[in-house]
Amino acid sequence: MDIEAVIWFAEVVNAGSFVGAARRIGQPSSNVSRRIAKLEDHLGVKLIQRTTRSLSLTQDGEALLPMARQLTRSQYQITEWKDSLSHEPKGVLRLTAPHSFAREPLTQWLLNYRSKYPLVRIELIHSNDYLDFQDNRLDFAFRQGPLPDSSLIAKRLFSIEYGVFATPTMIRAGSELKEPNDLQRVPLITAGSIGKVFPWRFRNTDMLPKDPALSFEDTAQCIQAAVSGLGFTYASRYEASPFIREGCLEEVLIPFRPTPIGFHMVYPERKHRALKNETFLVAIQEELEKFGVPEGLVS
């Protein structure tokens, strides 16, 4: 039995493609495909139905998947235990963060960490979704908003102030906005994840944008579109503040500004935590102290 091929099978399912799994494993996609095919031959069953555009699991593939994922978790735990014995940080540090935070300031923080600990390999996944820790072999996740109950540890880094922004010209040209639902009458620029628009949260109410003019995954693109005069966008005051200072954007519906939303670093409790994880926790705390509390954030 090719145990590694079983683990690769789980990676293919988690990634949604052979190419994505190969990228995560660090192998050519042809090697991954060939190993899975040999595993299917050994088991005498078809695990994956392949098409040019997508893949789906057979009934036998569905049956194998939970066991394959358990193998993946066991492999990760063994690696974590081995790394915890080291006297120097090393191994793979795998993280996920929303697009906006991944872009700034997290990327620079990771570069600083890597400069200090060159034996640590860093993998950062940009995603606005709450990715599963076990399926994605995550060490840390940066997440905002209410967190689902779990065994994960959540360390609050700061809170984020949000608001609605548009150019002065766009604001003057539109009808008067007295309450959040009035926004449904003007062009909206929204952020979200694939196939999902995030609600706009206000004090004592939420508003789900209908038929947005533009939708992006990264709020930086939303702000860019708003600065271009294409509509109103909901974004953090931290990201919008440079454009407010330059007179490019103004905030509307200020009395309805929501309570600041908590932003957390999330990670699992480990009996044997690898040195790379311990040093990363210390590094983030040091970066936060240097970062201070910029406009639009609350300590």
TrEMBL record:
<dbReference type="InterPro" id="IPR000847">
    <property type="entry name" value="LysR_HTH_N"/>
</dbReference>
<dbReference type="Pfam" id="PF00126">
    <property type="entry name" value="HTH_1"/>
</dbReference>
<dbReference type="GO" id="GO:0003700">
    <property type="term" value="F:DNA-binding transcription factor activity"/>
</dbReference>
<dbReference type="InterPro" id="IPR005119">
    <property type="entry name" value="LysR_subst-bd"/>
</dbReference>
<keyword id="KW-0805">Transcription regulation</keyword>
<keyword id="KW-0238">DNA-binding</keyword>
<dbReference type="GO" id="GO:0006351">
    <property type="term" value="P:DNA-templated transcription"/>
</dbReference>
<keyword id="KW-0804">Transcription</keyword>
<dbReference type="GO" id="GO:0043565">
    <property type="term" value="F:sequence-specific DNA binding"/>
</dbReference>
<comment type="similarity">
    <text>Belongs to the LysR transcriptional regulatory family.</text>
</comment>
<protein>
    <submittedName>
        <fullName>Transcriptional regulator, LysR family protein</fullName>
    </submittedName>
</protein>
<dbReference type="Pfam" id="PF03466">
    <property type="entry name" value="LysR_substrate"/>
</dbReference>
<feature type="domain" description="HTH lysR-type">
    <location>
        <begin position="1"/>
        <end position="58"/>
    </location>
</feature>
<dbReference type="InterPro" id="IPR036390">
    <property type="entry name" value="WH_DNA-bd_sf"/>
</dbReference>
<dbReference type="InterPro" id="IPR036388">
    <property type="entry name" value="WH-like_DNA-bd_sf"/>
</dbReference>
<dbReference type="InterPro" id="IPR058163">
    <property type="entry name" value="LysR-type_TF_proteobact-type"/>
</dbReference>
